Structure formats: structure tokens, C-alpha cells
Amino acid sequence: MRAEALKGHLDGLLLATLEGGPQHGYAIKEALRESTEGHIDLPTGTVYPALHRLERAGLISGSWSVVGGRRRRTYELTAEGRKALSDERDSWQEFAGAVTAALGTRPWPATS
Amino acid sequence: MRAEALKGHLDGLLLATLEGGPQHGYAIKEALRESTEGHIDLPTGTVYPALHRLERAGLISGSWSVVGGRRRRTYELTAEGRKALSDERDSWQEFAGAVTAALGTRPWPATS
DNA sequence: CGCTATAGATAGCGATGCTATGCATGGGAG
DNA sequence: CTCCCATGCATAGCATCGCTATCTATAGCG
């Protein structure tokens, strides 16, 4: 996947991954990789700053813990984050629909 | 539509609009607005630099003409541009599929 | 002891779309 | 006749944001 394609959609993906329950950064990255069959495999230098951004924005809240001698920051969705995720889903539908229409491709998935 | 969402997908949209035949910048902008029912309404400050970029990249070729006293730069797809458009469509399918999967939304369109 | 996986972090960069602004012409409103 | 708007093109400067490269640290395995 082209690197820059993600711009503006990363936040929604992270929020969606946290919807299933609290996770720490590394686990989020892995979960995203697995749920997309390797298509979305974020470098850690993308994940951590993005989580900081989301926390500053109040969409997620983090807390430190120590597991197996390693410190972990576990994040969970805030109420605001759930709202934002819902908005992201709506705007993704709109965006994907508009781009699909403009590109002249069949609505996803193209099975024909 | 959120402004930054377009990042990385603009080129494909412009190329797709030119697929139906040569167009000048302003007409491309209008065609895109109409084909997406107003969802994608690009400011001219986005369109013209993007066209210059595509021309520099050899994906489109432009020529000046004068219509009604106004000068126009009409662009058309090059062979390379057609190839790039095809690639864009593939990568859009892949990207949209991955994001849709990760967001946990139904494949577009969500009619349920 | 070194390598790898796990876990987190940051500086600096580059790409790219947007805002604001400018120029120019033609046509319609007043 | 004059002003404003739509058309048409253009650029400077900005802001955003994901990536690369690099760093720290621990646990476990060979």
C-alpha cells in the first residue's frame, strides 16, 4: 500500500482497534496488521505519535502498567473517542463512496 | 468531507476525470464536483498545482488554447497516465478494502 | 554473549492539499 | 455604464501528518 494513502484515516483505524477493549500500542499495531491481512502494517514511529495525538485530543486515555518487566501504556476509548469513531465511520463511507464514484470503479468489493 | 482525507488519492481522481477525454483545469474541477454530487469540491489552489505535478511526472500533457478571449490549458492523459490510473484503481481497491475491514464497517455501500 | 521480539519514544523530513491572494476576461444586474 | 460574479489560471506560504532513522530497555533463546 502506498505510504501516503493513509493520511487522515489513521486515527479512525486506531480508534476502531481499541473498540474491542483496551490495548497497548504494540498490540494495536499487531491487531491492525492481522485484521487487514498485512495490508496495514504500521511502523512504530507512526503508531506512538498518533496515540499521543489521540490522547491529547481526549479521544483515548492511557495508563501505565508493568508486564514482565516491560512498561506498557494501555489505552482505552473515551466517550469522546467513541463519538469520534462513529464520525470517522460515517466520513469514511462518504469519502470511499465519492472516490469510488469518481474513479469509476465498481463499489467495493469488485467481484465482477 | 474532511480536508486532509484526500491525501494521496487526488492524482487518481484527476486522472480518472481526464479518462473521458481532454479537459482544462476548471472543467476538471467541475466535473469532479458533479460526478461526486458535491462531495469532492476542490479549491483551485489544489487543482492547478496538482495538474502541474502530474504534467511534470509525465502522466498528462497540456497545451494552451484561447477560448472566448480566455486562455486555457487543456490536458490529456499520456500512455503513462493511463497506466498510472490503472495502478491507482488497484491500489484504491486494496486500500479501501483494508480500511473498511479495519474499521469494521460493512463493505461499501452499506445499505443495511 | 549476541540476536530477536517486545515495548515505547522522538527528531527531522518530505509530501501534499489548503488558504489567501493575485491577474485577466466576459456577461449580466443595476 | 459600472460593478460584481463566474470563469480561468497561478503562486507563496502554511499546516498536517505519516515515515525513516535512531535510541532506550527487557526477556528469552541459541
Question: What labels describe this entry?
Answer:
DNA-binding, 4 helices, Arc Repressor Mutant, subunit A, homodimer, alpha+beta, globular, 52% helix, 3 strands
Any guess at the CATH architecture of chain A? Orthogonal Bundle
**Overall strand count of chain A:** 3
- The coarse silhouette of chain A is globular
CATH superfamily of chain A: Winged helix-like DNA-binding domain superfamily/Winged helix DNA-binding domain
Can you characterise this structure?
The structure is a homodimer of 112-residue chains. By secondary structure, chain A is of the alpha+beta class. Chain A has a single domain (3-91), classed as Arc Repressor Mutant, subunit A, CATH 1.10.10. Helix content of chain A is 52%, strand content 16%. Chain A contains four helices and three strands, in the order H-E-H-H-E-E-H. The first copy, chain A, has helices at 10-18, 25-35, 44-56, 79-103, and strands at residues 23-24, 60-67, 70-77. In chain A, strands 1-3-2 form a three-stranded antiparallel beta sheet. In chain A, a hairpin with a 2-residue loop joins strand 2 (60-67) and strand 3. The two termini of chain A are 22 Å apart. The model of chain A is unreliable at 108-112 (pLDDT under 50). At the A-B interface, helix 1 and helix 4 of A face helix 1 and helix 4 of B. Chain A binds a DNA duplex (30 and 30 nucleotides) through helix 2, helix 3 and strand 3.
